[in-house]
């Protein structure tokens, strides 16, 4: 009897705990839903902060700034800047410190930079400002409004992507027709290129051993090529290869020649082909075509160097990863959604999916390295 009583108590305790957990989950959900209701606000306010030049202004000032100093430098009212800064401080983008020196402005709060706010400075090696401005620009935001309808329509009508539906043409034709957007897009890619190539040179330099010439296929405005050639002085020639409207406005650098063309037709010859954030824009059959053209371009002793995300299919595969590695993997899933909205069937790939396209394109050997401090991995693929 006593045993039955004990069992009953245990059951009650478990039911009570389960109820409490359900209530906590409900409460969490009621808070979390607002992240999605107002999810766009963070992006919009950060865009506004970049356009106003808040981080540039504090950096130029050289020391923490009061509200009065900051609003007068920005040409805005203190009331509005106070509200913007309160939001950005709350998001830990800027920091507030107390000013106890009583000067003619009186005691008060001073705004200081953080590592994150410095990434919003408009220029410099670590700037991510153009990337934020590009992703938050009208042509890049408009396709998100068409995502669900296009996903349904794709079953019956394959003709338009969300980007095409929103902007009337695909991303590459749109950049060709809009020089301002072409520049913004290329500068945005350069933000990622600066960080990623520096990390590659730091952690995978040996990948470029013995490479005398290299072609950067879909190399954008030439930032990656410039950094690679500078970081590997043994490379005699770098070839920046992209669509004509992109190379015609690209950076000029020593030991780098510019070639405009179409990677679906052919790729200029070199010891190695480098492809960063290019293949994820395309579906498998297109990737196989691009990779076959790269294979034609390199000698039998050459290689293809691919810099892209390698995403995992399920959470279990992430077990044992450090927190920052997990967060980088998360960015890969965000990028996968961006590919859905902005490209024609582009996607981020799992290792199995990468192996499939490489084998189909005739690459028999490969190895994958993670790049410390970058969201992409590096895949080296060899024809024999
Ligand atoms: C996502 S961007 C990556 C740029 C650069 N690799 C980087 O990571 O900074 C893709 C690039 O592919 C180029 N591209 C698109 N279609 C192309 C084609 N048919 N032939 C050559 N380049 C192309 C685009 O112009 C763009 O610069």
UniProtKB/TrEMBL annotation:
Q: Which UniProt keywords apply?
A: Methyltransferase, S-adenosyl-L-methionine, Transferase
Entry annotation: catalytic residues: 280 (proton acceptor)
| Pfam families per the UniProt record, alphabetical | Dimerisation, Methyltransf_2
Q: Where is the O-methyltransferase C-terminal domain?
A: 151-363
Query: Which GO terms label this protein's molecular function in UniProt?
Result: O-methyltransferase activity; protein dimerization activity
Q: Name one GO biological process term.
A: methylation
Q: Which InterPro entries match?
A: COMT-like, COMT_C, COMT_dimerisation, SAM-dependent_MTases_sf, WH-like_DNA-bd_sf, WH_DNA-bd_sf
Which stretches does the entry tag as region Disordered?
A: 1-22
Q: Give the family per the record.
A: Belongs to the class I-like SAM-binding methyltransferase superfamily. Cation-independent O-methyltransferase family.
| Official protein name in the record | Uncharacterized protein
Q: What is the protein's species of origin? A: Cannabis sativa (Hemp)
